[in-house]
Amino acid sequence: MKTTIFAVVLLIASGFSAPGQDNPNIPKGMKQYFFGFLVKGEKWSQTPPKEELDQLMQRHLAYIHSQVDAGNYKLAGPFLDDDRVRGFLIINAATAEDARRIVSEDPLVKIGRMAVEIHPAMFADISCVRMEYEKPKP
């Protein structure tokens, strides 16, 4: 009986290959990423003094740069309206937990000024896309 159950599970699982790995239902060139939305966190309304906010923003941007350089963020940017969702990230990670862990290290997320929503997504492989930042002037 255990052998039969194992065989059935194995047969069912073989029909669901990993995204982009010989699954005929997924077009070639597709890859799973995680879409991250940076949203106003529980401490958004507690605006620190301008100097402190500027420093936090510099640390936030430096963190984004470090994750781009590490290959974890494929695209990142702010939304220009003043709505609940403040920015987006396309995250290259193995799991949603990994993606959440990466974004949770952002200084603005750590202090609760921003929170993160993670959504798995599949779209064309963007591994050839490279964000470039100008080096800060001394």
Question: Would you kindly provide a written description of the structure presented here, covering whatever features stand out?
Answer:
The chain is α+β, with helices and mostly antiparallel strands and 138 residues long. The chain has a single domain (27-124), classed as Dimeric alpha+beta barrel (Alpha-Beta Plaits). 33% of the residues lie in helices and 25% in strands. The chain has helices at residues 2-14, 50-69, 96-104, 107-110; strands at residues 30-40, 73-78, 85-91, 114-124. The radius of gyration is 19 Å and the shape is globular. Strands 2-3-1-4 form a 4-stranded antiparallel sheet. The N and C termini lie far apart (71 Å). It contains 4 helices and 4 strands. Strand 2 (73-78) and strand 3 form a beta hairpin. The longest helix is centred in the middle third of the chain and has 20 residues, at 50-69.
Helices and strands in order, then pairings?
Layout: H1 2-14, E1 30-40, H2 50-69, E2 73-78, E3 85-91, H3 96-104, H4 107-110, E4 114-124
Antiparallel strand pairs: 1-3, 1-4, 2-3
Top keywords for this entry?
single chain, 138 residues, alpha+beta, Alpha-Beta Plaits, four-stranded antiparallel sheet
